[in-house]
Specification:
Layout (H helix, E strand, L loop, with lengths): L6 H18 L8 H27 L24 H17 L7 H24 L1 H10 L5
Helix pairs in contact: 1-3, 1-4, 2-3, 3-4, 4-5
Length: 147
């Protein structure tokens, strides 16, 4: 049952809710530019996600939230964000919402970010901080949580 409380499941649920909300209460808000900007943002998010995931593979540490970290990744995309995978998830959601051109699903974006921060980021920061106290403190001082 643990697999149900995973970031990709939350992302899929948010995407489904955004799509449904946009269809059930269609309040068009964005112009034709959103049909181009939305996919571009979502694709950039997917690229960021895969780049970050690749770094986990190279470092031979688990990408699964809740697992014990074997390495502190602070290079590559992790130089700009401590949470590039979660940033990528938010970009994918934002891109999809723009593409669907409905304003009401935008309320789901801050809700998604709050869930991810509460359920995953804060516990992960505590685990990584406990595993690599000095290195993680230095990393936190020079790298922001999101961007």
């Amino acid at each position: 049952m643990r697999w149900i409380d995973m970031p990709p499941v939350w992302l899929i649920a948010a995407l489904a809710a955004a799509w449904a909300l946009g269809r059930l209460v269609p309040v068009p808000a964005f112009g034709a530019w959103a049909a181009i900007a939305g996919p571009v943002i979502a694709i950039l998010g997917a690229v960021l996600l895969f780049a970050a995931a690749w770094q986990f593979r190279r470092a031979k540490t688990s990408i699964i939230p809740g697992d014990h970290p074997n390495a502190l990744i602070s290079s590559g995309v992790y130089r700009w964000s401590r949470n590039p995978i979660y940033l990528a998830d938010a970009m994918i959601l934002a891109g999809a919402i723009l593409y669907w051109r409905a304003i009401l699903p935008l309320i789901l974006l801050p809700l998604f970010v709050w869930i991810i921060r509460t359920r995953f980021i804060l516990p992960e920061e505590a685990r990584v901080g406990a595993a690599f106290p000095q290195a993680y403190a230095a990393y936190m001082a020079r790298t922001r949580r999101w961007i």
